[in-house]
Amino acid sequence: MKYIQFRIISFLIALSVISISGCCLFETDNPDLRIVGQNFPSQVGIGQTFHPTFTVGNYSDGECAAAKTNQSIVNLKMTNRANGNIQVNNNYTLNALDNNATQIFNNISVNIEAPGTYDLTFTVDPNNTSGEKNQNNNKITGEIIVQ
Fold it and tell me: What is the pTM of this model?
């Protein structure tokens, strides 16, 4: 009899621990893709090839682990500030990302032949196809001067 009581009490304690720990054992939060790193020069020479690097990660938007995203794209756009001409507009494949997983984009080559100040914009999931919730942190813009 004492053994059965012990088992029931143990079960109830385990059940309460699961309840206290929250939903995270059985659910996931919405995924949230973010740019978590970038590296590009602030200045390059005319005709000089440079290699910007960006890192995208999938993180939770709540207390539980983030759900896996769907495969998507990232877009790299480089626009001349003076005249608005787009010099680069390339898409790259973003793999489906698990919770806390990242993907580094480092095989990018850019060469600009005209001098000027350019905005380099990297946008994650521009068409909102990855299944993530927050699109407000999917873009980063930096300045590059070509002379």
Answer: 0.74
